[in-house]
Specification:
The protein is built from four helices and ten strands; from the N terminus they run ααβββββββββααβ. The chain has about 230 residues and is of the alpha+beta class. The protein has two domains: about 30 residues; about 180 residues, Porin, CATH 2.40.160. An eight-stranded antiparallel beta barrel has the order 1-2-3-4-7-8-9-10. Strands 5-6 form a two-stranded antiparallel sheet. Strand 3 and strand 4 form a beta hairpin.
């Protein structure tokens, strides 16, 4: 009899503790202080600065080879911002040169085939990507303002220090199954056809310059980390 009473008392005590704990959790969640809200927003904003992808690309008017970090965002992650550093071999010049590129990509839509592995989509195709980017070359040979050796306003509004580029391309993305993921969740292979403001200007000024003369092919790989 004493044992049954003891067991009953313990059960009632446990129930009361659970109810109290549940009430305390509810109160803490529903009465979040302004300080806690500010800290949560603060951490969320700084977390948005963590890069979500790694990019390697050749050519594209940004050097022989460029590599850097990127961020994707939007409701469908259709926007991307990449910051890359590249190099130009010296060839006939006196030294190798470094480049830096800030690139914005837009992916209007993505197509996912039916094939899957354990109900996980392994492949997706982006039939169109559009890019706008600006890059610069480090070196005294490149100028921001037109030197005196050129006729007045010959390079008006343009310089050899910064180049504005546009590109269109396509990509194919392979989704790594969750059980096989180590560092990356997706791998994308892409190509782009690009040109820059200086080439476009030359085509309009000289009728002998054709569209095929001002565009170039670029290949790259993108590794999704988050």
């Amino acid at each position: 009899m004493k044992q049954s009473r003891l067991i009953t008392s313990l059960l009632l005590l446990l129930c009361s503790l659970q109810i109290t704990a549940g009430d305390s959790i509810f109160v803490q969640q529903s009465h979040e202080s302004k300080y806690d809200m500010r800290i949560r927003r603060y951490r969320k904003h700084w977390a948005g600065l963590i890069p979500t992808q790694f990019v390697i690309q050749n050519a594209g008017n940004m050097g022989l080879l460029s590599a850097g970090l990127g961020w994707n965002y939007g409701s469908r992650r259709q926007w991307e911002t990449d910051l890359m550093v590249g190099f130009i071999p010296k060839h006939q010049s006196t030294r190798t040169k470094m480049t830096m590129t800030l690139k914005e990509n837009y992916i209007p839509w993505s197509i996912t085939p039916r094939a899957d592995f354990n109900k996980q989509k392994l492949l997706s195709v982006e039939p169109l990507t559009a890019s706008l980017y600006i890059n610069t070359v480090y070196g005294d040979e490149f100028w921001k303002n037109q030197p005196n050796r050129y006729p007045d306003k010959y390079y008006e509004f343009m310089s050899t220090k910064f180049r504005l580029n546009v590109a269109l391309g396509q990509r194919i993305t392979m989704n790594i199954p969750e059980k096989l993921r180590v560092r990356h969740s997706r791998v994308s292979l892409f190509y782009e056809v690009s040109t820059c403001d200086l080439y476009i200007r030359a085509m309009f000024q000289d009728s002998s310059v054709k569209l095929k003369d001002i565009i170039g092919l670029s290949l790259g790989i993108k590794l999704q980390t988050l």
